[in-house]
From TrEMBL, chains A, B, C, D:
Pathway as given in its UniProt record: Purine metabolism; IMP biosynthesis via de novo pathway; formate from 10-formyl-5,6,7,8-tetrahydrofolate: step 1/1
Reported function: Catalyzes the hydrolysis of 10-formyltetrahydrofolate (formyl-FH4) to formate and tetrahydrofolate (FH4).
Enzyme class: hydrolase
Family as reported in the entry's similarity comment: Belongs to the PurU family.
GO biological process, one term: one-carbon metabolic process
Chemical reaction(s) catalysed: (6R)-10-formyltetrahydrofolate + H2O = (6S)-5,6,7,8-tetrahydrofolate + formate + H(+)
InterPro entries the record matches: ACT-like_dom_sf (IPR045865), ACT_dom (IPR002912), Formyl-FH4-Hydrolase_C (IPR041729), Formyl_transf_N (IPR002376), Formyl_transf_N_sf (IPR036477), PurU (IPR004810), PurU_ACT (IPR044074)
Keywords, comma-separated and alphabetical: Hydrolase, One-carbon metabolism, Purine biosynthesis
Descriptive protein name: Formyltetrahydrofolate deformylase
Source organism: Thermovibrio guaymasensis
Classification via Gene3D superfamilies: 3.30.70.260, Formyl transferase, N-terminal domain (3.40.50.170)
Catalytic residues as annotated in Swiss-Prot or TrEMBL: D229
Pfam families: ACT, Formyl_trans_N
E.C. designation(s): 3.5.1.10
Amino acid sequence: MGRTAILLISCPDTKGILAEVTGFIARNGGNIIHADQHIDFQKKIFFMRIEWELSDFKIPDSQIGDAFSPIAQKFKMEWELHFSDEVKRVAIFVSKHDHCLYELLYRFKAGDFPGGDLRLVISNHLDLKELVERFGVPFYHFPVSRENKQEVEKKELELLKEEGIDLIILARYMQILSDQFVNQYRNRIINIHHSFLPAFVGAKPYHRAYERGVKIIGATSHYVTEELDQGPIIEQDVVRVSHRDSVEDMIRKGRDLEKLVLARAVKWHLENKILVYDNKTVIFD
Amino acid sequence: MGRTAILLISCPDTKGILAEVTGFIARNGGNIIHADQHIDFQKKIFFMRIEWELSDFKIPDSQIGDAFSPIAQKFKMEWELHFSDEVKRVAIFVSKHDHCLYELLYRFKAGDFPGGDLRLVISNHLDLKELVERFGVPFYHFPVSRENKQEVEKKELELLKEEGIDLIILARYMQILSDQFVNQYRNRIINIHHSFLPAFVGAKPYHRAYERGVKIIGATSHYVTEELDQGPIIEQDVVRVSHRDSVEDMIRKGRDLEKLVLARAVKWHLENKILVYDNKTVIFD
Amino acid sequence: MGRTAILLISCPDTKGILAEVTGFIARNGGNIIHADQHIDFQKKIFFMRIEWELSDFKIPDSQIGDAFSPIAQKFKMEWELHFSDEVKRVAIFVSKHDHCLYELLYRFKAGDFPGGDLRLVISNHLDLKELVERFGVPFYHFPVSRENKQEVEKKELELLKEEGIDLIILARYMQILSDQFVNQYRNRIINIHHSFLPAFVGAKPYHRAYERGVKIIGATSHYVTEELDQGPIIEQDVVRVSHRDSVEDMIRKGRDLEKLVLARAVKWHLENKILVYDNKTVIFD
Amino acid sequence: MGRTAILLISCPDTKGILAEVTGFIARNGGNIIHADQHIDFQKKIFFMRIEWELSDFKIPDSQIGDAFSPIAQKFKMEWELHFSDEVKRVAIFVSKHDHCLYELLYRFKAGDFPGGDLRLVISNHLDLKELVERFGVPFYHFPVSRENKQEVEKKELELLKEEGIDLIILARYMQILSDQFVNQYRNRIINIHHSFLPAFVGAKPYHRAYERGVKIIGATSHYVTEELDQGPIIEQDVVRVSHRDSVEDMIRKGRDLEKLVLARAVKWHLENKILVYDNKTVIFD
């Protein structure tokens, strides 16, 4: 398959949107290969992800936006245009746990994330420096304390800007980012929480799952918002536990969930398959 | 939501299909509420299910087919047109196992299958007569032997024709239907097989799963074709087993799978969400 | 397999418990067919379920307790003795939802619960009277209002006592039982909650799951305690949902979970496979 | 928890086995921390895994076998004695796929397999040499052709003997081992097959799953026997697919299953939790 363009759209639901958008692409010689729409009937919002081949498309990349603009205005659309060969620049934040980091390093290296370029890893500890550098990825150490937090975040943001980072992955990063930080990367910070949210929001979810005697534990990847563990959920998965599982067993089983649930969220984000609205996600997978 | 029309389409993939179909609906005042397309890139086939509200649609029901015909011809489409208030007439075939029958009787009664009208139950045994009649559904007893099979099928087909049956559900019916029978209801006979096909095709799958020592068992709903257990798969599901599970335990656990996997297939069929091609199904769920 | 005895034990963990208990059974000619132990290392508690054939056992049923007593005292055991042909008398409480009731009625009828005798159904509404009576089960109507609640519960308890009820199943019963009521049936009232507890404790969990945008929904069966939805969890299960699922879809998918998760809990309870401690369950399945 | 001994037993089922074994441990001061038994009632075989703390055990390690021997003889037991600080020496065989290898390298490094010492990796290709050596593990290249296969296996076996290898893991090794080879490591070679066995035995299972249109794919870890993909199944897991998944998508989804299913089997083997009989496994997890 050749190069493609991807249009992500949301707008008030009304008649004729689909016909107008597909007509625009067809008239200009585009071959639609994926079209996925969704309507939230309760809130009357229309969502679409549409992808078409560019080989015979008559409009050059740089002018597609302008050409599409009248349709967007007519339907009051919020929209994004992406190209299949776009590469997002990625930063990973970690603390001491290595399982999610490891999985991501492997996947970037193995070519599982063609839409992402892993530029750097930031950590508040030095434990994972050697591992990261063994993969040839720059490692930055930013120790964080209650006192220096604001200042450290400022420096981190400078580095992220310098490197043109588009996506931040919190791979079991044990610090809470400030609202100012989050605001600069709205819907572009993916966190992995080690519980089946909204059960066990906050710290030590496996311990609390053990205390409560649940029979299933889970992991949740979500975009980070100002409210802790309350951002739009991207993906969740679960695994059975029983009275035989100690907290340590749960932590061990949970690790396998966490890394896969995080990797799926990163993949969908890099493939422009996620639309966020109303603190929820539409996943066009 | 009001009355809707549903168009199921498959045709050779080419440019402009989506634009043309959605344009047709939009031009005539239809409000598209679901549009789901799929392309088999290997075989270059385009599939679509599109559903629109009829309240403001300018073309009367009976003329939609004719109006759409030129588009269908242009793209060499195979297509079906359905309406949301259509009701398919359903017959269930059973032998002695009651769990799938029970589930279906309940769901028809509970309103889970608004697109289906359960007209009758046919069995080669009398065991379930009382149960069926308690639900107010006509029960027909057709004992089958090697000798009378052809003749019995003929009578069954007459009854099915008389009652205008559109869909046959084999709810653990322990007889193999002849090719002639199957031919008259192509892609309109749904069977439940008590294994994770294609593992354990044929008889006594739980016994063979036990012998093989598998750690997961399954159930499969599929359309019936001439080849035993080889028809297009509609739905599958699985459950864990261990060395602790005897054959009887597997049968018991399997029952819960079978009835749900069968019910899902029936639901999708009645909602016109299934397209069959190449001995496979596209499920627009 | 012949008649068996089942011993459920919990006690402070120490050396020699298993040897002593199995020695007692072996010395008296019992053939152990299941032995399952568990130690909570954190709390240092020992749990065991042991089942043995009685055909050659030298102690008559009525004297087993006395014979075992010295061992029980030595290890400060809490213990229960059951026999495989014991039958617990069961009452189901319902309101208007019929899917869990239906599943239970079917299973009692189909012989899935040999350890239970369904004596009666109690409801605060009349909607399900006909269904219950069609199964030949006595139906009692106890309308509940804020004013008469205490009095109604008193009458219900009288009826339950008269009928010698051992187990109460709340099959989507939409009333909260008083502490006094719960106290009389400690660890003998099983409820089904339509969420993956502890997420969405309380009312309208599917609506809240929809609002929160979770990707998986669940159901939880648990023993009822004074605190709402906080009792010991017996079983949980989950199913995937997506942005395509409306609240109604979730409710529909959830129904299939609820009925199976409730049925599993009932089965384990009737087979004396559950030990409760510390607001958690040990399930010897 | 301190050092423990683990006894794995299978023998004809009869009365008194459990009492005798636990009595032996208790009399000698052992504190049983896990005891798990299973009876195959069809074949009348008794299985047990029992683990006890050695801190106060009166018999020195080297004499436990002799001391236990009379009991073993009395009940005609096959038995193995292990100690919790035993370390099995492990070799991994790979070809070109790296995902399973990677997962195993990570887990050995992360301390997930305390019972295993990864001594070396053998491959018929050079592709993964760098990766293996980056982890500090010796890499051996044994190119295999139809002509030299016998000779190569001989050399491999010499190396394995020299290194005292106890367990061989085939981490997507694309060669079939000869019967002679397999015989030397009976129940000590673990393979990962990329299908839900017994569906799709042999080559290219994902392609065949795609062709068949299944709705769920799986992975299976098993001990290697002379018959291809027919050895005792240790663990299986599955993931949903749909018509939207191409063969490539299935391969990608399958990779995540394969690595976890293989890792679980390796973990159980290293913890002496697996008993093999009758081409099946009993997993005391």
